[in-house]
Amino acid sequence: xxxxxxxxxxxxxxxxxxxxxxxxxxxxxxxxxxxxxxxxxxxxxxxxxxxxxxxxxxxxxxxxxxxxxxxxxxxxxxxxxxxxxxxxxxxxxxxxxxxxxxxxxxxxxxxxxxxxxxxxxxxxxxxxxxxxxxxxxxxxxxxxxxxxxxxxxxxxxxxxxxxxxxxxxxxxxxxxxxxxxxxxxxxxxxxxxxxxxxxxxxxxxxxxxxxxxxxxxxxxxxxxxxxxxxxxxxxxxxxxxxxxxxxxxxxxxxxxxxxx
Length: 260
Ligand SMILES: Nc1ncnc2c1ncn2[C@@H]1O[C@H](COP(=O)(O)OP(=O)(O)OP(=O)(O)O)[C@@H](O)[C@H]1O
Ligand SMILES: [Mg+2]
Hints:
Layout: E1 7-16, E2 24-34, E3 39-43, H1 50-58, E4 65-70, E5 73-74, E6 82-85, H2 97-103, H3 112-125, H4 141-153, E7 159-163, H5 171-188, E8 191-195, H6 199-205, E9 208-213, E10 218-224, H7 236-248
Parallel strand pairs: 3-8, 3-9, 6-7, 7-8
Antiparallel strand pairs: 1-2, 1-4, 4-5, 9-10
The protein binds adenosine-5'-triphosphate and magnesium ion.
């Protein structure tokens, strides 16, 4: 069962004023819908406004045109209902792993014992039990990203926003964490919006892949992925979707990666 609500991004445009630079339009009439409990990925060229869109959904910036609605209500300000994980883990080096995760609960209403229990549970969900007292520098890159995912989930958000969370990891760790992420998504019933440059990762994980184009950022196409879970990256159907998405992103056939 999903505990989350419908997220609707309606015709959102975003402009930035950069000194000495003409007014920059980062998003142009971007719309998308995230059904409760869905996993949506966003792919598109660098600078097409993916992180901008996540920041608006997070509620950190209300200076935009259009509407962003959760449960039919306009998003106002950051809220514990929406969590985020970035490409760099952003763990504070002077806090242990469990203290870093507990920090996300600072403004939550629970009693201290309930918070400690939530931290323990989430450390376990991401497979880091026994590393609770470790310092960030004692964790590998993959472990630190797991910790960041636990921190993003510890408030039991309705939506977890993931901005290239696995982007800095080696290929093997990345595949392992994609499987972890899928398991967590299925177990937690949380909606997830993943920004990634890895088309395969997007197909492996998502109910739907959103392809954006840049200058200014627009939603070009939405591709439903209906392959059963868990998905076989080597299957013909997977390869077909991969090829289709690369083409939608404007790649010429001869420029596609070999496996495509
Ligand atoms: N705080 C900001 N102030 C001014 N301009 C910004 C700001 N944040 C982003 N931009 C501009 O908005 C555009 C979109 O940036 P954004 O970071 O959303 O792209 P992106 O799709 O996430 O790119 P990448 O894939 O490289 O992470 C870029 O041209 C960028 O220069
Ligand atoms: Mg970005």
